[in-house]
Design brief:
heterotrimer; A alpha+beta (about 450); B mainly alpha (about 290); C mainly alpha (about 300); B: about 290 residues; mainly alpha; MetI-like fold; 2 domains; about 0% strand; C: about 300 residues; flat
Chain lengths: ~450, ~290, ~300
């Protein structure tokens, strides 16, 4: 009995081992073939890492790669998709070991930081003169460190205002007229609340859903938290204090219980309250909100507008992020890598990506073509066009190299203020000095 | 006298039946609590995305999309991944039960100079968080030319791990020394005592190590992710990540996949339980 | 003379065999573990940034930690809070459950499987699932509390309740330790129970005087390893606080989370490695105390 078991286990292991070996062997032969090709025809193989493995995004990027591979015969790109987040840990280890991929998609806000730490190649010399003008300037600037270019922007996002037209009508508001200022926003929200003995069926608006206090501060002041000219944090200002107080007063109308319950219910990346008809107005990314409305909220009759102004004339400043294509430090063929990056960020590939994923792209020509594309519905075109127009109002907040993790010091202070443990002035003062300390070290 | 005796045993029996009923009810209530998250996973796995996105979330799915399961399997070469994972897991179980029990015997049953110091070093290797040593490890395996192979995931397993060595040492030390001393007087070597006396007496402990190792290797995510580049070498846990996106997650496929991956673990545990049946261990028997 | 010499060689022989048994581990230690470990110690005295920089800076990292990093102390406090509550609670919980699981009750194999299940579930999905369960209005936990008339807190959104929520989650996973205790209970001779039963000892006394002493080696193991593990709590906070920001008002900034942010957000790996060695010293001291106290309460049937 025992011998039988042991033999069985051994046989099973042997079979598994053979199975594994045979595939290894198969890959090796494939590998040598590629090498041979390299010798004879000078084909350069590029490893391209992305986190786009989902059934919606993978086919799109694979098609772009295929088109590139077919467009010439010097470079062949091989796509590997890795999980979101972990992809960059793996890249870091690979750079440290001197064996990185050839091209990777990475966070736009941390390009400068990677540049200063030698994690990414300086690609200035391989880029064409005047390429800069093809991209939204705020995005391009994020990829520049001390006048050298380290990456090319691929996609981006922004925050715009969505409102539910049917709810506006039911509350006696003009469904075609979104609030233009914070005061109007507050006024409308009150009219749109649908409450019954402390239980809300519908909430008019919540300043901390989809965005958070820092974006209200930026909307008020028109700038981020760091001055790249003087290398100093710029947290303290009267307008920032006003923004923080406004957002908290707004929330206090509902009370902490309602707010926290709401955040918990909708904080797990599943249901979206605007799509579910629980929220009448929301600030969100065009890509995230529109695709959900398109796929899961057919009956929601909505409009889009820029971020409301603090007061008339103060500006619609809003915030965005995005991703870049870059060459990790130590990659073998930076020139070939950049060739591929140029294609990836060129108008044709960018338009295709934009239309297929309803995603904001970094290339101006590609983005504008996408907004006119017949592939999008009329509503889709409207939202996309507004997203593009909104790029003028959108600021990015790249991490300063002196204090890359400054948000981990700022957020808790803002949070403490929000929970009523300190005043807005105090919160900003604490945050300012904490970041100064961090940068000073 | 006999009548008294009988009623005594009767009352013990009744008491036992009563306490067993109470235990049964307590365990049942606990099971419901523990299973509710699993139910939630299952319910999500058969919903369509429309229903998953709905608010409030439905406890009982409105429509049952069994098709999610075959669809999940189509999203990645999961059969390939299953074989890869199984291969790695079997080796891990084999290597860990063998190596750790061998090493633990040395720590538990043989006196040698510096044993306590070595044991302290052993415990110390558990105390640094893995991600601090992750990059140096990676660079080391890169220098060895082991990247994109299974070697970094397999070879270290044959040299034991602190957690299991410590665990087995504890188990081995509960085995009475008379047993090993008697064998020694008969001229048995330590190797013989380890293989023929200690291992057979420690089946529940070895089974525990086997189960833990199986789970660990089966669910390992960061190891395969770091060291493997070829998608054909990927494991199930990496495969499951295709459903997790930056903007949106395919919750139904993710949950269906997670449940399917969980199934072999449950079956294995169910089978291995025969080593945990009360009185299985023969310590008492062989002692007498 | 001769006899004495032979006696010595016997002892030496015995000792040599000991080294042979631990040789695989020693080899693994030297080949795979020691290098990265010592590297991290050395790098903690540098400004190592993983990819390009590694200059000796003396004790700067350590000085900064203790003098100007407020999050260092906050994270240490949070971690201690977690360890102090989760280690005893999970140990007691696991022992109690395994005692129940060691009874002859119908369906025990099924029960054991169910109680073990949570320990096997892994991945991000589980943590997101907990966010749903702990949701104040619609979550299952507060729904059940409301049946007995308790209004549950906002758990992951109220700084006072975030850590209890995480501890609660760790209790859900005691099935793993349950397995250890079950395995060790199989080593308790049945004859002891039978003798006690005839003496009329009630179940509680049987547990206290027979079962408990016999499983002390595993309780010791559980306490030591879960203390070590408790100080490394990370994943829960990382996933549940969105990109590792540390939860409301820093209440979930655990030591390892702060270390992770220093290492992989700020690329200040030298500093993170310094932090890890501070953690190492704390845990080592605690383990040492545990080892020294062990002879007072841990009972080994096999003697020394």
């Amino acid at each position: 009995m025992k011998i039988k078991e042991a033999v069985l286990a051994l046989v099973l292991m042997a079979v598994l081992f053979l199975a594994a070996c045979s595939t290894d062997a198969g890959e090796e032969t494939a590998g040598t073939n590629a090498d041979e090709g390299n010798d004879s025809g000078d084909v350069i193989e590029l490893d391209f890492w992305t986190f786009w493995g989902s059934e919606t995004r993978k086919p799109v990027i694979d098609k772009i790669i295929e088109d590139f591979n077919n467009s010439q015969d010097e470079i062949r790109v091989k796509h590997t998709h890795l999980p979101w987040g972990d992809i960059w840990t793996k890249n870091l280890a690979a750079v440290a070991a001197g064996d990185p991929p050839d091209v990777i998609i990475n966070d736009i806000n941390t390009v400068k930081q990677r540049a200063v730490n030698n994690q990414v190649e300086n690609i200035t010399e391989y880029l064409d003169e005047g390429m800069e003008s093809e991209f939204y300037p705020e995005l391009w600037n994020a990829a520049v460190y001390e006048d050298d270019i380290y990456a090319v922007p691929f996609n981006t996002d922004t925050r715009i205002f969505f409102w539910n037209k049917d709810m506006f009508e039911a509350a006696g508001l003009d469904p075609e007229q979104p609030p233009a200022t914070w005061a109007e926003l507050e006024e409308y929200a009150e009219l749109l609340d649908d409450e019954d003995g402390g239980r809300y069926h519908t909430i008019g608006f919540l300043p901390n859903y989809g965005i958070s206090q820092d974006i209200w501060m930026m909307n008020a002041t028109g700038q981020g938290f760091w001055d790249f000219e003087t290398s100093e944090p710029t947290l303290e200002s009267d307008k920032a204090v006003e923004a923080l107080n406004w957002a908290r007063d707004f929330e206090s109308r509902y009370g902490l219980n309602v707010i926290q319950g709401f955040e918990a219910d909708f904080g797990n990346q599943q249901a979206n309250p605007f799509v579910a008809g629980k929220l009448a107005m929301a600030i969100h990314t065009p890509t995230g909100m529109y695709t959900q409305l398109r796929d899961y909220g057919e009956d929601i009759n909505f409009g889009v507008a820029p971020f409301p102004e603090m007061e008339e004339g103060n500006g619609h400043t809003t915030w965005g992020g995005g991703f870049v294509a870059e060459v990790p430090y130590g990659a073998e063929n930076p020139e070939a890598s950049v060739e591929f990056i140029k294609y990836l960020t060129g108008p044709e590939a960018q338009e295709y990506w934009a239309v297929m994923n309803f995603d904001n792209v970094a290339n101006v020509e590609g983005a504008e073509a996408a907004a006119q594309s017949d592939e999008l519905s009329e509503k889709g075109q409207e939202v996309y066009q507004l997203a593009i127009d909104n790029m003028d109002n959108t600021i990015l907040t790249p991490y300063p190299v002196e204090a890359p993790d400054m948000m981990s010091l700022i957020n808790p202070e803002l949070e403490k203020f929000r929970l009523g443990d300190q005043s807005a002035e105090q919160a900003l003062e604490n945050a300012q000095s904490a970041v100064e300390d961090l940068a000073g070290n | 006298m006999s009548i008294w005796n009988k009623s005594y045993y009767e009352s013990v029996k009744v008491k036992k039946r009563m306490s067993n009923t109470i235990i049964f009810i307590v365990l049942l209530a606990g099971s419901v609590l523990l299973l509710s998250p699993i139910w939630w996973m299952f319910a999500t796995s058969v919903k369509d995305m429309q229903e998953i996105m709905a608010f409030p979330p439905t406890f009982w799915p409105n429509d049952w999309y069994w098709i999610n399961y075959p669809e999940t399997l189509k999203a990645a070469p999961f059969i390939r991944y299953t074989f890869n994972t199984l291969f790695l897991t079997m080796i891990a179980v084999f290597a860990n039960t063998l190596a750790n029990s061998f090493i633990a015997y040395g720590f538990a049953k043989i006196r040698f100079k510096g044993r306590e110091v070595f044991f302290a070093i052993l415990l110390a290797t558990m105390m640094l968080p893995a991600f601090v040593t992750m990059i140096p490890h990676y660079v080391m395996f890169a220098k060895l030319g082991w990247l994109n192979t299974y070697l970094p995931l397999i070879i270290p397993q044959f040299f034991g791990g602190a957690f299991f060595i410590f665990l087995l040492r504890q188990f081995f030390r509960t085995i009475p020394n008379e047993l090993t001393e008697a064998a020694k007087i008969d001229g048995a070597s330590h190797f013989y005592i380890w293989a023929r006396i200690i291992l057979p007496l420690s089946k529940p402990a070895i089974a525990t190590v086997a189960i833990f190792t199986f789970n660990g290797a089966w669910n390992d995510f960061i190891g395969p992710l770091l060291y493997l580049n070829d998608e054909s070498l990927y494991t199930l846990q990496i495969g499951l990540q295709v459903f997790r996106g930056q903007v949106s997650t395919q919750w139904n496929y993710l949950m269906a996949g997670s449940l399917m991956v969980l199934l072999p673990v449950i079956i294995l545990f169910f089978i291995f339980q025969r080593y945990f049946i009360e009185g299985m261990n023969l310590t008492a028997g062989s002692k007498g | 003379m001769k006899k004495k010499k032979r006696g010595l060689t016997l002892e030496q022989k015995e000792g040599l065999q000991g080294y042979i048994f631990i040789l695989p581990w020693l080899f693994g230690l030297v080949a795979f573990t020691a290098g990265p470990l010592l590297f991290s110690l050395a790098a903690s005295f540098t400004n190592y940034n993983i990819t390009s920089r590694m200059d000796f800076i003396g004790f700067d990292n350590y000085i900064r930690m203790f003098s100007s990093d407020s999050l260092f102390w906050i994270s240490l406090g949070n971690t201690l809070y977690f360890v102090v509550f989760s280690v005893p609670l999970t140990t007691i919980g696991a022992v109690l459950i395994s005692v129940l699981m060691n009874q002859k009750v119908p369906g025990m194999r099924v029960f054991r499987t169910i109680y073990y299940l949570p320990a096997v579930l892994s991945g991000v999905g589980v943590y997101l699932l907990w966010m749903q369960l702990l949701s104040p209005n619609t979550g299952l936990v507060n729904t059940i509390l409301s049946w007995v008339g308790i209004q549950g807190p906002a758990w992951l959104f109220d700084p006072n309740w975030t850590k209890p929520a995480i501890i609660f989650m760790s209790l859900w996973k005691v099935g793993g330790s349950m397995l250890l205790y079950l395995a060790s209970m199989q080593g308790v001779p049945q004859s002891l129970y039978e003798a006690a039963e005839i003496d009329g000892a009630n179940p509680f006394r049987r547990f206290w005087h027979i079962t408990l002493p016999m499983i002390t080696p595993i309780i010791f193991f559980d306490v030591v390893t879960s203390t070590i593990g408790g100080f490394q709590v990370f994943q829960e906070a990382y996933v549940m606080t969105e990109s590792g920001e540390g939860g409301p008002a820093n209440s979930l900034v655990f030591f390892n989370l702060h270390m992770w942010n220093k290492a992989f957000v700020a690329f200040d790996m030298g500093y993170a490695m310094g932090m890890s060695w501070i953690l190492f010293i704390i845990v080592f001291i605690l383990t040492f105390i545990n080892l020294k106290l062990a002879p007072r309460w841990v009972h080994y049937e096999g003697g020394k």
